[in-house]
From TrEMBL:
InterPro entries: DUF3703. It comes from Rhodococcus chondri. Residues 92-113 are annotated as: Disordered. This is DUF3703 domain-containing protein. Pfam families: DUF3703.
Length: 113
């Protein structure tokens, strides 16, 4: 069961679209991270976001990030379904699997709609 708001779904779609058209990997990662924050309550969107992160890590030949994304792909849906995910976490390996992070204020505003 998804607990994602319409505002969060809209943010997710906007950030994923921006990631696809980003001109650099760094900008693409930024959009994927923001999409991750929005996607966490929804098992499907959360898993799709980690798949996109995995694909980018593969394109960059970043083995550590790719492996970390495989782990996250496995736990994303169960974490969303049970509500056991670290809010605000960017979804990257450097962030840690269980580390909550502050949600950027512009995202917090959009997610609350």
């Amino acid at each position: 069961m998804s607990r994602i708001t319409d505002g969060a779904r809209a943010v997710y779609r906007q950030e994923m679209a921006a990631a696809k058209t980003a001109t650099t990997a760094q900008v693409r990662w930024g959009h994927l991270e923001r999409a991750h924050i929005a996607s966490q309550p929804d098992p499907w969107l959360h898993t799709c976001n980690h798949m996109a992160m995995f694909m980018l890590a593969l394109r960059q030949r970043d083995r550590g990030e790719a492996f970390g994304q495989v782990v996250r792909i496995i736990v994303a849906a169960p974490g969303s379904l049970t509500g056991r995910y670290p809010e605000g976490d960017t979804g990257r390996v450097a962030a840690g699997l269980t580390t909550p992070m502050p949600i950027p204020s512009d995202l917090a505003d959009a997610l609350s709609r």
